[in-house]
């Protein structure tokens, strides 16, 4: 997510995961656009409530796996069939059953590494990344709902009261 | 979605309609007719010409498993045996599923628990048929039952088979078979009774008792599943042995049982029953079939690979027979088996959406069920009928007869209780199941 | 919705809030090392130093310092390797297979178990390097072209499969474990008060912000990782077992080896997890998170896998007789009654009989019994590998070359080295990283607590820097 510059946010702090889940539905129903919700642990159904599309990491994983599978088979068939044919243990220089273990291992290796790399890149993560924290307690015990005031037509006070009504324990202003 | 589900009524009574009964009877009659036609064709020698040439080379003589006195009856009994092994496995897999779900304290499966619970009722039928088959046609199917193999110095003496006499002898074999069916069936009766009483009386007492007897079953099944596989299947190829065979057969039975359960759940749902079963339950069942298909493949591959790699003649003969023996007639079933039991469910059930789509779930289940039939077919047929094997009316008919009888048995059991075990202590979790 | 049936035993006791979880776990990361930790670390480090010297000497002098001979060409080295790899199976089992099975009790133990996995695999790899004799040639095991003056590696050799399997397993486990750590590292980052730890934990947490979108992707990724790690964990010990089973040596060539090795691996791994968790829960005061229910669940798995191993032993023995192969039969009779009978019966007693004691609820809920039996199980599993490897080799087809194996000081010391390495790494982990997965435990608090506090959020203890400098866009 690109860092929003010069944006003013209202940050509703919630104490309870069930409350924040309910609040997301209520706030969205009252026509307020939610920037994002920050939680210390995953809340089941929160992404659906926020209307986030389903992740396509699975497709990436499948593609990486396929790459690994093909790489392994190409490597082994090239070396053992073409580059230096060899009969070992009475097996043909190309013996498919024997290649299955390594093919499997490389499939898994490529899938895991490729998918994790995709995850890190798509979330704009990395060791030098400075995260945009709306409230430091969201990695501990609080749940924060951030609302970008520039992207909402409603008045700040109106949004604040909507947040309060839906159960926010406190509402802070945060400027980036 | 974590939304509040509307929980439908839990009182559902399955009705085994006259229409369904009529269809099953027709199916059975067609099956009998096909078997009769097939038997008639075999008895009159149709389609046997090709084999005579092979026989002329003496390939089958002196070869274990093939018998000098082959008649069409052997093929008939071999078919009875394949189907018996297959449906015994499916029936007992229901009990297996119930037991390990109790042991693991699984919550989600409590809503579909009545379906696996209905399956083991077929065990006595299978037990009687198998015992009768063994007593009538044991000599046709099991090479080791021939007395001359054990006569030292005799013409037919086989030192290796004679060495197995302590295990492979008729009284002990019969005793083991009776023990399997009796122990499996009675432990199921206990669990079933508790389950029915739980419906009436509620409370957690029956839950804990069921857990206890489920564990007793698992302990017994841990041993008997392996020994049953050796007895009922592996001893057909009397010389051959594989330590993996017990677990391999268990994996096959288990996944066939899972596919059957899933199919029943989906079909009941389509008929308007099992309202409380939601997409998450189907998703979980799909995952089970997906995972255990891969597990079966793992076990299959490990066994195949080690035998292929080490290349010891007394072991590889088993795969040789299926690859190129008997004129290569078992090569196609061999690969059909691999395709339907691994490639097919793996590709069909890979995505999340597929496991939630009833059509794809049904397709995968049918694939797995057909595939595992061929698994037992390739394990049993070469050793019993050898080059006389094939796939004709007698095979189709026999499957129809057994399948109709099995469906009849399951349907009857389903009518005997509410379709949802409404007092199961973990049911509430299953009703709100959401993944 | 948190529907949990009343028949389930709670997994978190003491009425913990989210803030309590953070506090209880972060306490030892942020605080000064305790005295127990310092003593344990010193001992481990000393053992490691002694062991390293012995390993160095082994390489310097050559493998002749071990007790190997022409008949028994593999002994303690491969025994230790298989033993450690086996132990390294429990972590991925807990984090992957139990995740797929939605076992909530996994959340409190998975972090430490995965760390244990990684360190156990490191120890296992050390024996591979050791038994190469010339570890600087290790790259020859990689698929490199023949410009090095040799052929390509032999892809038909199970030992090459091992190279792929172990390195893949290590990499994937490490990635899985590290990705699991990221949210918790962000927690520590946000609590940090010193610049150094804020910088270090900030870099390690990869800029985690805990947004709903990240969490959704994160959970999806974890599920896929679990999905591929499950067959991976099976494949690793399968391939290790194939080092033996693809051969034609009686006692080694048996088709049940792959699943039977996997079951044995999980068995010994869980025993090791039990040992470590029982210590951690006391030393770090985590009894509210690692409860009797956790111990009992793990003991049930130990009994289950121990029984599976038992069935496999019986199957092997039976088929050895049933096969009618005199060599196969002899190999098994020799195991039970030959010169290594004591190893065989140690294995049988420790692996098959001792876990059956857990059928008693009193024993499986007792901390002392659990600890002792877990040690016994690991001794038994070491003997299992010893029995398989040494007794199968020491008497082959040629009676004139039958021999015994006698371990030397360096066999023993190189084994001790691996303990020093393992515990040093584990203690470092326990001090500097959160030993319990905070995010996952918080996620089950509502559904699995013994009693819920008034406000589940709780009051965060400790001061915080309100405007930390790592948050560059702060006004």
UniProtKB/TrEMBL annotation, chain A:
Listed name of the protein: DUF3341 domain-containing protein
Lineage, highest ranks first: Bacteria, Pseudomonadati, Bacteroidota, Cytophagia, Cytophagales
Keywords: Membrane, Transmembrane, Transmembrane helix
Keyword Iron: no
Transmembrane portions of the chain: 57-78, 98-121
Top-level taxon of the source organism: Bacteria
Automatic annotation (TrEMBL), chain B:
Superkingdom of the source species: Bacteria
Keywords associated with the record: Membrane, Transmembrane, Transmembrane helix
Annotated TM spans: 24-43, 80-100, 121-142, 173-191, 212-233, 245-268, 288-309, 329-350, 357-374, 394-414
Ubl conjugation recorded as keyword: no
The protein, known as: Quinol:cytochrome C oxidoreductase
UniProtKB/TrEMBL annotation, chain C:
GO cellular component: plasma membrane
Protein's UniProt keywords contain Transcription: no
Membrane topology note: Multi-pass membrane protein
InterPro entries membership: NrfD-like (IPR005614)
Subcellular location per the Swiss-Prot or TrEMBL entry: Cell membrane
Residue spans crossing the bilayer: 37-60, 80-101, 113-132, 159-181, 220-240, 260-280, 301-322, 342-359, 371-395, 415-436
Family under the similarity heading: Belongs to the NrfD family.
Protein name, UniProt field: Polysulfide reductase NrfD
Source organism: Fibrella rubiginis
């Amino acid at each position: 997510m690109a860092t929003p510059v010069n944006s003013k946010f209202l940050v509703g702090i919630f104490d309870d995961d069930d409350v924040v889940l309910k609040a997301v539905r209520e706030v969205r129903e009252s026509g307020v656009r939610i920037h994002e919700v920050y939680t210390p642990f995953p809340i089941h159904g929160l992404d659906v409530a926020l209307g986030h599309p389903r992740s396509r990491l699975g497709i990436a994983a499948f593609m990486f796996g396929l790459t690994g599978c093909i790489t392994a088979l190409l490597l082994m068939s090239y070396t053992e069939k073409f580059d230096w044919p060899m009969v070992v243990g009475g097996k043909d220089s190309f013996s498919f059953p024997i290649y299955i273990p390594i093919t499997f291992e490389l499939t898994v290796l490529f899938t895991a590494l490729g998918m994790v790399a995709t995850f890190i890149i798509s979330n704009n993560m990395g060791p030098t990344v400075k995260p945009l924290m709306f409230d430091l307690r969201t990695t501990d015990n609080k749940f924060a709902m951030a609302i970008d005031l520039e992207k909402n037509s409603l008045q700040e006070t109106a949004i604040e009261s909507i947040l309060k009504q839906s159960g926010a324990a406190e509402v802070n202003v945060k400027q980036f | 979605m974590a939304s509040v589900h509307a929980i439908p009524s839990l009182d559902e009574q399955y009705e085994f309609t006259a229409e369904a009964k009529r269809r099953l009877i027709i199916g059975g009659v067609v099956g009998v007719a096909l078997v009769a036609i097939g038997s008639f064709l075999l008895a009159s020698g149709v389609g046997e010409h090709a084999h005579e040439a092979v026989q002329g080379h003496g390939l089958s003589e002196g070869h274990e498993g093939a018998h000098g006195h082959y008649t069409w009856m052997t093929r008939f009994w071999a078919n009875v045996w394949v189907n018996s092994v297959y449906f015994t496995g499916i029936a007992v897999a229901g009990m297996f599923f119930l037991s390990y779900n109790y042991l693991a304290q699984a919550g989600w499966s409590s809503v579909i628990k009545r379906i696996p619970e209905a399956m083991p009722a077929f065990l006595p039928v299978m037990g009687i048929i198998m015992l009768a088959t063994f007593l009538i046609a044991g000599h046709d199917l099991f090479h080791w039952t021939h007395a001359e193999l054990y006569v030292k110095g005799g013409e037919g003496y086989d030192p290796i088979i004679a060495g197995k006499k302590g295990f492979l002898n008729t009284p002990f074999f019969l005793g083991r078979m009776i023990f399997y069916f009796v122990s499996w069936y009675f432990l199921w009766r206990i669990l079933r009774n508790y389950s029915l009483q739980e419906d009436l009386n509620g409370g957690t007492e029956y839950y804990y008792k069921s857990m206890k007897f489920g564990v007793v079953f698992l302990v017994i099944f841990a041993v008997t599943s392996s020994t049953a596989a050796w007895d009922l299947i592996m001893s057909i190829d009397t010389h051959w042995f594989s330590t993996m065979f017990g677990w391999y057969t268990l994996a096959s039975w288990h996944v066939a049982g899972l596919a059957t359960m899933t199919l029943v759940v989906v079909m009941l749902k389509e008929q308007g029953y099992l309202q409380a079963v939601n997409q998450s339950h189907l998703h979980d069942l799909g995952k089970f079939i997906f995972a255990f298909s891969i597990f079966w493949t793992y076990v299959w591959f490990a066994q195949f690979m080690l035998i292929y790699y080490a290349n010891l003649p007394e072991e590889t003969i088993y795969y040789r027979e299926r690859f190129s023996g008997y004129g290569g007639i078992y090569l196609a079933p061999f690969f059909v088996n691999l395709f339907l039991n691994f490639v097919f469910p793996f590709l069909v059930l890979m995505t999340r959406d597929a496991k939630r789509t009833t059509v794809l779930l049904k397709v995968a289940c049918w694939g797995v069920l057909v595939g595992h039939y061929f698994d037992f077919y390739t394990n049993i047929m070469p050793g019993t009928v050898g080059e006389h094997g094939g796939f004709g009316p007698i095979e189709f008919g026999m499957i129809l007869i057994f399948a109709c009888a099995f469906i009849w048995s399951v349907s009857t059991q389903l009518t005997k209780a509410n379709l949802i075990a409404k007092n199961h202590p973990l049911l509430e979790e299953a009703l709100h199941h959401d993944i | 919705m948190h529907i949990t049936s009343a028949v389930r035993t709670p997994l978190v006791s003491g009425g913990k809030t989210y803030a309590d979880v953070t506090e209880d776990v972060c306490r030892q990361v942020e605080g000064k090392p305790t005295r127990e930790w310092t003593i344990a670390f010193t001992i481990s480090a000393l053992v490691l130093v002694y062991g390293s010297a012995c390993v160095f000497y082994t390489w310097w002098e050559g493998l002749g310092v071990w007790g190997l001979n022409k008949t028994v060409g593999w002994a303690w080295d491969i025994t230790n390797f298989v033993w450690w790899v086996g132990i390294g199976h429990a972590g991925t089992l807990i984090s992957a297979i139990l995740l797929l099975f939605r076992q909530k009790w996994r959340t409190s133990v998975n972090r430490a178990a995965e760390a244990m996995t990684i360190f156990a695999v490191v120890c296992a790899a050390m024996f591979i390097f050791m038994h190469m004799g010339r570890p600087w040639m290790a790259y020859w095991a990689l698929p490199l072209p023949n410009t090095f003056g040799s052929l390509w590696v032999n892809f038909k050799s199970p030992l090459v499969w091992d190279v792929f399997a172990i390195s893949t397993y290590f990499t994937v486990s490490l990635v899985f474990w590290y990705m699991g750590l990221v949210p918790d590292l962000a927690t520590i980052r946000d609590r940090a008060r010193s610049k150094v730890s804020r910088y270090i934990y900030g870099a390690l947490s990869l800029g985690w912000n805990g947004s709903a979108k990240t969490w959704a992707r994160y959970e999806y990724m974890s599920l896929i990782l679990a999905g591929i790690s499950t067959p991976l964990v099976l494949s690793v010990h399968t391939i290790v077992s194939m080092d033996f089973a693809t051969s034609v040596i009686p006692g080694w060539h048996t088709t049940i080896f792959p699943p039977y090795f996997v079951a044995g691996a999980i068995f010994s791994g869980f025993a090791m997890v039990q040992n470590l968790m029982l210590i951690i829960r006391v030393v770090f005061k985590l009894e509210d998170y690692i409860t009797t229910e956790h111990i009992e669940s793990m003991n049930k798995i130990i009994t289950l896998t121990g029984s599976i191993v038992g069935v496999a032993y019986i199957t092997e023995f039976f088929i050895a007789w049933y096969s009618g192969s005199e060599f196969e039969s002899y190999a098994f009779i020799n195991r039970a009654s030959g010169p290594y009978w004591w190893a065989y019966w140690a294995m049988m007693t420790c692996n098959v009989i001792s876990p059956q004691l857990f059928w008693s609820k009193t024993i499986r809920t007792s901390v002392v019994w659990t600890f002792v039996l877990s040690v016994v199980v690991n001794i038994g599993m070491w003997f299992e590998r010893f029995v398989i490897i040494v007794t199968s080799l020491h008497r082959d087809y040629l009676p004139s070359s039958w021999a015994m194996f006698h371990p030397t000081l360096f066999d023993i010391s190189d084994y001790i080295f691996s303990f020093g390495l393992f515990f040093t790494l584990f203690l470092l982990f326990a001090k500097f990283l959160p030993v319990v997965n905070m995010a996952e435990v918080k996620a089950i608090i509502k559904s699995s607590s013994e009693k819920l506090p008034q406000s589940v959020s709780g009051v965060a203890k400790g001061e915080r820097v309100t405007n930390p400098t790592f948050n560059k866009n702060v006004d």
